[in-house]
Amino acid sequence: LVAKRRDDYRAPDFTITDVALDFVLAPDSTRVTSELKVSRQGSHSKSLYLDGEQLTLLELSVDGSAAQDYQQTESGLTINNVPDTFTLRIVTEVNPADNKALEGLYLSNGVYCTQCEAEGFRRITYYLDRPDVLAKFTVKITGDKASLPTMLANGNPLESGANDDGTHWILWQDPFPKPAYLFALVAGDFDQLTDTFTTQSGKSVALELYVDKGKRSRGEFALEALKRAMRWDEETFGLEYDLDIYMIVAVDFFNMGAMENKGLNVFNSKFVLADQDSATDEDFFNVESVIAHEYFHNWTGNRVTCRDWFQLSLKEGLTVFRDQQFSSDMTSPLSNRIKQVRVMREHQFAEDASAMSHPIRPDEVIEMNNFYTVTVYDKGAEVIRMMHTLLGVDGFRAGMDEYFRRHDGQAVTCDDFVSAMQSATDIDLGHFARWYSQSGTPQLALARAYNEQTDTVTVTITQRNAPTADQTEKAALFIPLQIEFIDATGQHVTPDQAMYADNLLIVDKDTTTLTFTGKGSAITPVALGNFSAPVKLTSDLTPAEWLHTFRFANDAFSRWDAIQQLYNWCIEQYYQQQPHAVDENIWQGLYQAVEASLQETEILGECLVVPSFETLCQSRSNIDVHALNTARKAFSEALAEQLADLLLTIYQANQTDAYDYQPEQVRARRCKNVVLGLLAQLPECKDRIIAQFEASDNMTDTLGALKAAQHHDLVLFSNLMNSFEQRWHDDPLVLDKWFSLHATCERGDILAQLTLLRQHPQFSQQNPNRVRAVVGSFAFYNTTGFHADDGSGYRFLTDYLLELDKQNPQVASRLVTPLTQWQHYSSTRQDLMKRQLARLLEDSGLSKDLYEKVSKALA
Ligand code: HT7
Ligand code: ZN
User: Which part of the chain is the Peptidase M1 membrane alanine aminopeptidase domain (predicted)?
Assistant: First the structure.
C-alpha cells in the first residue's frame, strides 16, 4: 500500500464541467447512468483516468460511440485517445443492499443514502473523484413510489412524474459547481418538518427536515437551531444562504456525525433528534452545534473548498472554530471553552504523542478517512482561534471577507487562507504559519527566580518541541500566550517589558524572559489564559498558588484550570503513595474555594470535575495504569468526604423546575449531577440516587442518577438500568446510553457483560452508533476492563476489530485508536498492546484503514 504525499499534488489533466446522473434504484442492482462533459486541461496527450471501485461497468461511450480503447482495474478506468472535449457516457451497476461500509450508495432500514466524502463517489460511478474538479450536477432518481415517497438530491427540484410500473421519478438540479464529495442522494419514507427562513437580503429559503416516521416532534429543536445558525452567520460574518431550499435528512446508519452535501445535509439521527424525555442537555448542545457546523460549511467548505485532501483543515478547522464561536454565543463562553480544552487534552494531545501524530495539514496519507482526526479538526480550530486572537475580531472578519472575495467558487489551500488573513492586517503571519506544517504538542515550562538585591523577579518561559513519530526536526513555534500576574495581595502587576497586547505575550523562541522590579518576590504568573494556544504548560507554582490563582485571576478559564492543576498535583501525591502530602491546608483551601463560589454555578460545576484518567495520562510517562486509576479514585473519594456538607448544600440548591433547555437550568443540572457523581462515592448516597432517578422529568437527570449509581454500587446500578431498559427498549438511539453505561462499568466480569450486550436484540454490528456505544465506550473509557493486566481487554477489542473490519473499515479504524496509544504506559503493558496490534497486522485481508494505523503503531 502506497502513501500519497502532499508535495506530489498535480493539477488534474482533465476536468468535468457538467454531470447528468440518472439513478434507477433497486436494492441489489441500482443502475447509474452518468453523462459527463469532459475537457482536457493544458496541452498534453494523456489518457483519461477515472476513479472507480466496486462497480460493474455496463456501457461506456465517447461522444455517442461505444469506447473500445480502455482498461479497467480494481481502482479505476483508463480511457485512451480521447478528444480534447467530449461527452462521456458511463453506465454502471452497484449493490446498495450489500454495502455495509456505508460509503458510496447504501441501503439500510429501507433508506437509500449516499456518503461521498472523502472518496465515496467513486463507489457510485467512474469519476475524477478529487475536490479540485468542480462541476454542475443534474440528478434524476427513479424508485418505487410506495416505499420511497421521498427522493432527494442536491439543489432544487425541477420536475417529477410517475411511471406505469409503480415507480416515480424526480429531477434535481444544483446550480453551484461542486466537487463530487458534496454529491448526495437520499430516498425513503420519512416524516417531514418544514419552515422558512428569510435571509438578511430578504430571500425566502424553504427549510425541510426529514426524520424517521413517528419522530417528528423530536426534530423541532434541530429546525430552530438551524435558523439560529443561519442568523448568526449573517450577523457575525455577513454570510447568507444561497439556494432556495435547505434540506436535512436524519438517518440511523451513518459513519460519522453529519455531512454537509450542498443543500442536502445528511445527519446521523443522534445529532438531529432531541426532546426532554430522550435527550440530555449535552445531546441538545451537540444537536445545535452539529446543525450549525454543517450549515457553516456551506461557505467554509462548499463555496470555497479544498484543493486536495491534505488541505482538509482549511474547511474543518475553520468550520469547527465557527461552530465553537456560535455555541459559545448561544450558551456560555466558559463552559464551551472548558469543553473544547477537555477534547484537546484528552484526545488531541494523545494523538500527537502517538504513532498517528501529524500536522493539521498532513504530509502523507494512505487512507484519507483516517485523517478526519482531532488534530485536523480540533487542533485546526485552535490554530484558527490563535489567528483570531492575534488579528482581533475586526481583523479576523476583514481576513474572512478577503478570503471569500478572492476564492469564492474555488478549491484552495491552507496557504491561500493564511495569505488572505495576512492581507487584512499588518501582522506578519509568516512564522505563525509553521503551525500548519509542524506536528506535536509544544511544551512550555515556566520558572521564576528572585534577586533580592535588585528586588527583581525573573519569569522564564522555555519552549520545547520534542520529536514526534512523523517528524524528528522541530523548530520554535509562534505562540500567543495569554498571561496575567498577581502579587501576594491578589493585585495585578505588569512586567517591566511591553507585551504584544494587554495580557498577551508572544513566545516565539526557545526562551522568553520577563522581569518584575520592585514588586516583591511573590509574583504568581497565571499563564495560558483561555487556553490561548494548544500547548502543554508546566510551572513551578505551589498548591497554595493554584488556590491563590483561583481566588484572584481575572480569566475564568484560568481559575478553572488552577483547580485542575491542583487536582493533578494531589493525584500525583496519591500515585506516589504519599496521600498525606495532600495536607489540611490544601483541603481547607479547596473547601474555602468551593464555599466562596456557591453562587457561581457554572464554574463551580466544572471545578468539581476531577480530571479524567485519559487527561492525567498526557502529563505522565511509564504509567502504571491501575495505580494511577486507583490514585484518581482515592483522591476523588477523599474530595467527596472533605467537601461532603458543601456538596449536599450545592446539590439541594441546584434543583430545577420543570425541564427547559435554557442556560441557567443547564448549569444547575450540570452542577447538581457533577455533585451527585462525587457524593455517590459515599455510602449514604443510595436514597438520593434513587430519589433523583424516580423524580426525574428529563434524560439529563435520569442519566445523572444512572452514572452516580454506576459509581455507587452494582446492585443499585443494575436495578436502575433494568428499569431504564424496560422504558426504552424500542428506542435504540436512547438505548445507546444504556449500552454505553454498561460498557464503561468497571467490574470483574465486564467481558461477559460485553458478550451479553452484543446479543441484545437492539444491538447490530452494522449500525455504527451501536458499535461505538458498546465497543467504543469500552475501549476508550473502561480503564480497568480495557487495561486488564492479563491483556484480555486488548484481545477482546482485537477479536472484534478483525470481524468488524470486513464490514466497516472506517469505523473499525476509529475504534483501534486506544490500542495504538500505548506510548504513555509501562513497558509490560506496551508489549501486551503491541502483541494484539501484531495480530491485526497478520490478517492478510486487513483494510487500508486499519493497516495504516496499525502498521504505524508498530513501526
Ligand atoms: N465533512 C464531513 C466529514 C466526513 C464524513 C461525514 C460522515 C460520514 C463519513 C465522513 N467522512 C468524512 C463531516 C463534517 O466535518 O462536517
Ligand atoms: Zn466539518
Answer: 221-433
Among the bound ligands, name the one nearest to the CA of residue 267.
Answer: 1
**Helix intervals (H) in 331-439:** 333-343, 349-352, 374, 380-407, 414-424
Give CA–CA dist 559/571, Å, rounded.
19
Does residue 682 register a pLDDT over 90?
yes
Beta strands in 508-641 (DSSP E): 511-517, 524-527, 536-539
Written as nine digits, the cell of 611 is 480530571
What secondary structure letter does DSSP report for 256? S
Q: What is the residue-wise DSSP string for 468-519? A: BTTBS------EEEEEEEE-TTS-EE--SS--SBTTEEEE-SSEEEEEEESS
Q: Is 827 helix (H, G, I), strand (E, B) or coil?
A: helix
**Do residues 798 and 818 touch, judged by C-beta distance below 8 A?**
no
CATH fold group of domain 199-280+295-303: Zincin-like (3.30.2010)
Per-residue DSSP letter, 187: E
Q: Which of 356, 413, 414, 367 is nearest to 387 (CA)?
A: 414
> In CATH terms, are 1-189 and 199-280+295-303 the same topology?
no
pLDDT digits (tens, 9 = 90+) for 557-579: 999 999 999 999 999 999 999 99
Domain chopping of the chain, boundaries:
1-189, 199-280+295-303, 306-437
d(CA 126, CA 90) in angstroms, rounded, equals 8
Residue type, 612: S
Question: Quick check: is 294 catalytic?
Answer: yes
The dotted CATH code for 306-437 is: 1.10.390.10
pLDDT in tens, 226-278: 999 999 999 999 999 999 999 999 999 999 999 999 999 999 999 999 999 99
Which grid coordinates belong to 746? 468497571
The residues with which 195 forms a beta bridge, in sequence order, are: 207
CATH topology of domain 1-189: Immunoglobulin-like (2.60.40)
Q: In this structure, what are the phi and psi dihedrals at residue 646, rounded to the nearest 5 degrees?
A: -65, -40
CA of 377 to the centre of ligand 1 (A): 11
Instruction: For residue 33, give the 3-state DSSP assignment.
Output: strand
Mutation test residue for ligand 1: of 102, 181, 255, 256, the one with most atoms within 8 Å of CB = 256
Contact between 269 and 252 under an 8 Å Cβ cutoff? The reply is yes
Ligand 2 centre to CA of 375 (Å) is: 13
Q: Which residues line ligand 1 (CB under 6 A)?
A: 115, 117-118, 255-256, 258-260, 293-294, 297, 316, 372
pTM for the whole structure: 0.99
pLDDT in the model for residue 1: 87
